[in-house]
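Lest this sound abstract, we let one protein speak, letters for residues, whole numbers for local backbone shapes, and leave readers to judge:
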Amino acid sequence: MSDNQRAEIASGHQPSEIVIWNALELSRHIHDRAVSCHEVMAAYLDHIEACNPSVNAIISLRDRAALFGDADRCDDELGRGMSRGWLHGVPQAIKDLSATAGLKTTLGSPIFAEQVPEHDSIVASRMKRDGAIVIGKTNVPEFGLGSHTYNPVFGITRNPYDTRLSAGGSSGGAAAALAMRMLPVADGSDMMGSLRNPAAWNNVYGLRPSFGRVPFGVAPEVFGHQLATEGPMARTVGDLARLLATQAGPDPRVPLSNNQDPAIFASGLERDMKGIRIAWMGDWHGYLPMENSVLSLCEQALESFRTIGCDVEEALPAFDPSELWQCWLDLRHWGVAGLLAPLYEDPEKRKLLKPEARWEIEGGLRLSALDIHRANTTRSAWYAALGTLLQEYDAVALPSAQLFPFAAEECWPREIAGRRMDSYHRWMEVVIPGSLSGNPVISLPAGFNHTGLPMGIQLIGRHQADLEILQIAHAYEQAAPESTRRTPRFSGN
């Protein structure tokens, strides 16, 4: 633990050292029998009891007695020389968009407030397979729509660095729980920056893997919808890569899943960075409005890449970003409508949908098949244009968000730098280049502004180059200044 972290921790609630350990460190201590799974569970539950009320990140928390029973069984297995995997006995809360057998999965919607699935999602089942003990869920926006985690079922998730502000979303509960040390690693998902925006606003790492790397679902439709993916979040790149190794790998129920052996992510991330070239897109020549100091913080972060031997220079793809936005609108309308139209068609359930969900569905209902074909053609052209840039560069960098966390009671920001936002997600436009590419994209901590709010910087990698982007991120992590490792105060009840 750094001196900076110790100073922050000393100013508030005093957590057990167990919850300060990162995930690989915790796993090592468990397997060395230096600490029992029972002790780990007790430390995490006590810490959650003290800290969760201030941020509301973890929801649907299971009964303590049941959780201690699970932990004791893990200890018994270790005593007999048995380990399920690197997550053996490690507490985990699964994102509330991801199905968990026998545990509420509400999607943040009052329509599903009492829904209890019979089966786990692929990601949840793989984390359990590797030994994780599911203690509850992490909070999300309603149906994951919007990068601000609030819903009428569980309320608002607040930012650990300033609880008056948003934690981002849709993986806001996961990111806030990580920052507050209530989880050692966390699963998330990303359609429009949901692994990246909350990572940036909570000073953690979030990886949107290459499309197909982490099989999504199982969903009723497995061919058409290709915008969303699940992926890992962590406080270190090593933990991030190790969780990706758990989540990744093919599944025959998901025909577009990637066949590469996920074990590559469980090996070392060391690599010589000399000669690595990074293109800095910035605000796309002024197209993307940015709050004051977002760009300057990210440009400071670029110096860490130069420190490790990377060449960094400004460069843009040959593409009109306004065309990319229209493509995004159409494909997102179509995808959301496909998922939620049956709820919209029921007048009583329609009343329970938030306005942004109704807007997405109504937009989708106006689209023709030809509109979707045109949007996919635009997306294909973008992939080609980005690919051309990535023939010259190893990665493309841009901010993870266009503004710092906003007031938690606001639904979404109406303007950035004096420019009006014309939809509930226009303020997140900076994330769609990565989302539409299908390439791996990681958000790295970039530092803090003068009021102590965090920001992140995105790196978009080449097609299927998840390992390479993790290696670059790992080298960046080693070189980044101590100021990027600031820990939030752990306020008690």
Observations:
- The longest helix spans residues 321-344.
- DSSP finds 16 helices and 17 strands in the chain.
